[in-house]
Amino acid sequence: MGTLLGIALGAGFLIALLVLVGIRPREARTLARDDEKGLDRDVQDVLAALRSVSAPDDRGGERRAVERLRRLLSAEMDEVVLADAPGPERTRFDLLARGRVALEVKIGRLSASEIQRAVGQIRQYARIWDGALLLVLLSEPEPRLDAQIRAELADPALRERAGGPVLAAWKTPTTFRVVG
Prior knowledge:
Blueprint: H1 2-20, H2 25-52, H3 61-76, E1 80-84, E2 92-97, E3 101-107, H4 112-128, E4 132-138, H5 143-153, H6 156-161, E5 166-171, E6 176-179
Parallel strand pairs: 3-4, 4-5
Antiparallel strand pairs: 1-2, 2-3, 5-6
Helix pairs in contact: 1-2, 4-5
């Protein structure tokens, strides 16, 4: 519900802005709908690319795994880069796909507190980012952590603050599962 309200408010703002610059309301509504569809399409493309690539190993730490994942995703789709988040805070996304889908990558076996910190990063990004947010977990899924992530990402305050979808994906050589 919160995501739909956020999308509706965002689309309403976009329509009002477009009308102010001289675009008729019907055309403005069409452009806003196309932008939402475009973001959804970009998220689906990122998820499809993640599904199709092999999971990078975690030798060499998280920074190396992020770089290997960037190269793998770049072979599947365009515009996958390391990028600074907008705003005054010094924040860097691990990866940014098509300028609209921010990815935060975590590797190895994660504890409950590490999951909380990762979701905290997603919450921080939601304050300053209007696109989609994707937490990519390069480790074996664990049912208790899966439930924790699902609950954290379903938080109405996070959903309302985020400018797009907020998801997590487990990726291993044998598993690909999306949560959220």
